[in-house]
Amino acid sequence: MKNGTWRKSRTLHMKVALTIPHTEKIEKFMFAKKVIRQKENGEFQPIHRAGLLNLADYEIVEQYNAEARGLCNYYNLACDYHTPDYFCYLMEYSCLKTIANKHNTSIRKIIRQYKDGKTWSVPYETKAGTKRVRPIKIDDCKRGEASDIIYQRKKFSWKTTIRQRLNARVCELCGCKEADL
Predict the structure, then answer these.
(1) What is the mean pLDDT of residues 20-37?
(2) φ, ψ for residue 99, nearest 5 deg
(3) Which of 24, 62, 76, 83 is the most buried (most CB within 10 A)?
């Protein structure tokens, strides 16, 4: 250091690095899915998604998780992978607002209703018993706990639940009838 001047060091000198395009891709994705709106001061505010109000609570959480997991897994190799934390926060609170709007209550009451330790999760029934689905965090993707396999389900009537769809004995991936699920 000469004469009190600092020099910036290049950490990726002559190397290619993948970075996350927040404005170009992630913000556009969130606006397209109507997860957020922008306030007059430029801040983002999570909003509820009216298109998901007819789903069961755990299906709403699964939809948000699938979208968040898809983006997190896509940019898993980025050198600034820690930055989607804010994206996951906005997705979680948009999910909470959607569930709260569905039940005509507040986010605080939904969190209290679905409290599970330090976080919240929505219970659902399976053959093996009650399981819980919680909103995905960026750390889940880093540790590999979040699977990158996302199935595209066929569209069913809004009145059907996962239990009714399983009892229909039709594979949602291939359409095979009497499939052994």
Answers:
(1) 87
(2) -65, -40
(3) 62
Contacts of 64 (CB under 8 A, 6+ apart): 91, 92, 94, 95, 135, 136
Under DSSP, is residue 133 helix (H, G, I), strand (E, B) or coil?
strand
Is the alpha carbon torsion for 153, 135, 39, 24 positive or negative? negative
At 151-177, the pLDDT tens digits run 344 444 455 677 777 777 777 767 777
Contact 47, 107 (CB under 8 A): no
- b/e string for 5-26 if b means 16 or more Cβ within 10 A? eeeeeeeeeeeeeeebeeeeeb
Residue recorded with tokens 């909103």: 135
CB 90 within 8 A of CB 30: yes
Assessment of whether the complete model's pTM goes beyond 0.85: no
Residue type, 77: L
Looking at residue 151, its pLDDT comes to 39
Q: Burial code of 110-134, b = ≥16 C-beta within 10 A, e = fewer?
A: beeebeeeeebbbebeeeeeeeebb
The residues with which 44 forms a beta bridge, in sequence order, are: 38
Backbone region of residue 73 per phi and psi (left: phi > 0; alpha: psi in -120 to 50; beta: other values): alpha
Residue-wise pLDDT tens digits, 31-66: 998 999 999 998 999 999 999 999 999 999 999 988
Give the number of residues written for the chain. Answer: 181
Sequence letter at residue 123: P
